[in-house]
């Protein structure tokens, strides 16, 4: 039975492809993690609004490659939502990070998990990045993911 008090999401009317990649110069915690960075592009509605080309992000904090990937996607989704009417946007996310894409599917309710758990060595920043990802993905009408081989990110972003 439908909930009479829940407003249904409007139909998605625009499709935007978000291609992202992130990393760090050092991914070894015992040596000291490097400062996280990333890049993303939009294809579709956002490109029409003048935001074409790779957008570079410096996260400004030491983080693992996984956290840098997730944080880069968070920034891309947050900036896209700021452009207006995110509830009408169908976001197609492309990336080479299976971990980031899995967590995006989890926070969007598209991945069946009986219980969300983190490994004992998951950093506080990694866990916070998952929370931020959930908030960043929430306003969109539809989100789907596509894993792409590493060579696509290297060709698009040079890293």
Molecular structure report:
This protein is α/β, with parallel strands linked by helices and 159 residues long. It has a single domain, classed as Nucleotidyltransferase, domain 5 (2-Layer Sandwich). The chain contains five helices and five strands, in the order ββαβαβααβα. A five-stranded mixed sheet has the order 3-2-1-4-5, with helices on both faces. Helix 2 runs parallel beside helix 4. It is globular, with a radius of gyration of 16 Å. 35% of the residues are buried. The model has no long low-confidence stretch (mean pLDDT 88).
Strand content: 25-35%
Mean pLDDT: 88
State the total count of DSSP E strands: 5
Low-pLDDT residue spans: none
Question: In whole angstroms, how far apart are the ends?
Answer: 49 Å
Question: How many domain modules?
Answer: 1
Predict the CATH topology.
Answer: Nucleotidyltransferase, domain 5
* SSE-based structural type: alpha/beta
Task: Write down the secondary-structure element order.
Answer: EEHEHEHHEH
- Write down the overall geometry: globular
> Largest sheet, if any?
5 strands, mixed
Give the C-level CATH assignment: Alpha Beta
Residue share in helix: 25-40%
Number of helices: 5
């Amino acid at each position: 039975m439908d909930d009479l008090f829940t407003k249904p999401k409007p139909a998605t009317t625009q499709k935007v492809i978000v291609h992202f990649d992130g990393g760090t110069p050092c991914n070894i915690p015992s040596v000291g993690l490097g400062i996280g960075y990333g890049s993303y592009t939009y294809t579709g509605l956002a490109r029409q609004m003048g935001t074409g080309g790779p957008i570079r992000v410096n996260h400004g904090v030491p983080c693992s490659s996984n956290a840098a990937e997730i944080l880069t996607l968070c920034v891309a989704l947050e900036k896209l939502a700021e452009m207006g009417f995110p509830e009408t946007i169908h976001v197609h996310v492309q990336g080479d990070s299976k971990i980031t894409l899995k967590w995006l599917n989890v926070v969007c309710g598209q991945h069946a998990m009986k219980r969300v758990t983190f490994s004992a060595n998951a950093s506080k920043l990694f866990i916070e990045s998952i929370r931020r990802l959930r908030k960043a993905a929430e306003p969109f009408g539809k989100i789907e993911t596509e894993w792409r081989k590493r060579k696509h990110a290297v060709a698009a972003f040079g890293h």
